[in-house]
Amino acid sequence: MKKLSILAALAALALPGCEPKKEPGKLSVGFSQVGAESAWRTAETKSIRDAAAKKGVDLKFSDAQGKQANQIMAIRSFVSQGVSAIVLAPVVETGWEPVLREAKAAKIPVILVDRGIKVSDDSLYATLIASDFVEEGQMAAAWLAAKMGGQGSVVELEGTTGAAPAIDRKKGFHEELKKHPGMKVLKSQSADFTRAKGKEVMEAFLKADRDKVQAVYAHNDDMALGAIQAIEEAGLKPGKDVIVISIDAVKGAFEAMVKGTLNATVECNPLLGPAVFETLDQVLAGKPVPKFVKSKDRLFEQATAAQDIATREY
Ligand code: AHR
To answer: Is-above-0.90 flag for pTM?
Structure first.
């Protein structure tokens, strides 16, 4: 019975209309994206789509809606379609080995974008093209400690639990803050990188500790923008009564800095499309590529936000 159904499945795969659809002459690449949780992510998706179109690549796009299980399914589908390469922006850091082994067995190179993973075998991916999230957290903490004269109480809005930017931005921030014994993190909680959750968690923080909260560190701008709304609704002035710093440097953050409600943002470049396809050319040509292609990021403050905003591409 079991043998029969396996034979039936194999026969179905051999039927003419069941072959994977490939555009002749075009390089086909599968892209498994986290979702659309933030303005940053939307900018990254556009950058990768635009770069693929410019190169004439047939890009098979899959939105995982924040679920690793959907990404694993998408990778399996890309493998069965016989794509030339896979671009993966992983939701979380762990749990990738089995599916990446399947891609490796099919000789399909995997390029990681914007978030890293933890694997015991580095050959499971060709390269990671991303920012250094630990450094971003360190930059935010150093700026905040200087702004507060080394004294004060901060609440932290963390990104998606288990995601590399949430883990590393926390690590960098706490490491750097240890150098300033007068600085204290009152509370930390995940707000999943979204504006709605940023507002919700900030409301709870203010309800519990309104008189103690002097600053907010958000792992991305969207959560900071939600927190700003919560601070305003609580009758306080964000940017003055409560200092707000976040990461990404999206347009909305510059608008908030111009208004004076956000104090600073650390850039995290989402415009990774050109680097992805340049690196992919090297990988497919069998040339060596570095294991980590690092983006250059910097911190922006209110003082120059009005001029900076005109130069921002996302
Ligand atoms: O992985 C990058 C992070 O993911 C961005 O900082 C955040 O906005 C996004 O959702």
So the answer is: yes
